[in-house]
Amino acid sequence: MGEFDNTVAVITGAARGQGRSHAVALAERGADIVAVDICADINGIPYALGTEADLDKTVRLVEAAGRRVVPVVADVRDLAQLETGVQAGIDELGDIDIVIANAGVVAMGDDESHSEPVFNAIVDTNLNGVWHTLLATVPSIIRKGRGGSVVLVSSSQGLTGRGGDGSAAMFAYAASKHGVVGLMRSAANAYAPHKIRVNSIHPGGVATPMIINDFVINRMTEKPNRAVSQTLLPGVPLVEAQDVTDAVLWLVGPGSRYVTGVSIPVDAGHVAM
């Protein structure tokens, strides 16, 4: 018997990186998965996002773990599109127990200060997209009637302004990730009567394609920002996706049954400096 047998989890940004790691780990422990991803690039975001081939790989890995999975190609910025996709997952797998609002973008190293397309793309994905995810999923948890757990993936930059460089990209990223904390706290209060716990998780830099791409590497090499990468623990420039997944598994599992409305850093001490 798995820890999450007979549960359904919705994960956004599931094509690769942290989202794929969360999806596979939950499937290995018994959950069926609704795997959501835009599978397309976004104007203003200077690196390639996940593809349908990436999402197909997530599907294969979940199925290899013996669980059912519904892939959904949807943009979290588009509420109607997201609701339609999530409903397709519900129609096949049943109502939802777990939500991981993981989809997010960054433009680290873009030093333009007046770039509204970059600012809007980041805020629309990282903040509006998380709100849309709540709207598209929580009614199903309520309808199921046995409570649930929601994890909103923020960032260490959602707890600190360190690393701000005056660019539209960094202003947008920090503002959007701070906004996720506000959503989390409000949702924890709003959904508590339905026994739904809501928490946020705050990774530092994670070794995924969001950071490990030519644009970010080249820009950070040209103009290092030590305040972004510094941590208390030596030798940890980046955490691994599995480190974040381990925290997510605890937050959605029975071991945290009385934990709600809190922000959990997984950042090797970045926000404590």
Give descriptors for this structure.
273 residues, alpha/beta, Rossmann fold, 7-stranded parallel sheet, 8 helices, 7 strands, 43% helix, globular, SDR_subfam_1
What does this molecule look like?
The chain is an alpha/beta fold and 273 residues long. The chain has a single domain (7-266), classed as 3-Layer(aba) Sandwich (Rossmann fold), CATH 3.40.50.720. Helices cover 43% and strands 14% of the residues. It has a 7-stranded parallel sheet, sandwiched between helices. β5 (148-153), α5 (168-191) and β6 form a beta-alpha-beta unit. α1 (17-28) runs parallel beside α2. It starts with 7 loop residues before the first strand and ends in a 7-residue tail after the last strand. The mean pLDDT is 94.
Topology (elements, then pairings):
Elements: E1 8-12, H1 17-28, E2 32-37, H2 52-64, E3 69-73, H3 79-93, E4 98-101, H4 116-144, E5 148-153, H5 168-191, E6 196-203, H6 214-222, H7 226-229, H8 241-252, E7 263-266
Parallel strand pairs: 1-2, 1-4, 2-3, 4-5, 5-6, 6-7
Q: Helices and strands: which structural class?
A: alpha/beta
> Strand order, biggest sheet?
3-2-1-4-5-6-7
- The CATH architecture is 3-Layer(aba) Sandwich
Poorly predicted ranges: none
Structure described in brief:
The chain is α/β, with parallel strands linked by helices and 273 residues long. The protein has helices at residues 17-28, 52-64, 79-93, 116-144, 168-191, 214-222, 226-229, 241-252, and strands spanning 8-12, 32-37, 69-73, 98-101, 148-153, 196-203, 263-266. Helix 2 links the parallel strand 2 (32-37) and strand 3 (69-73).
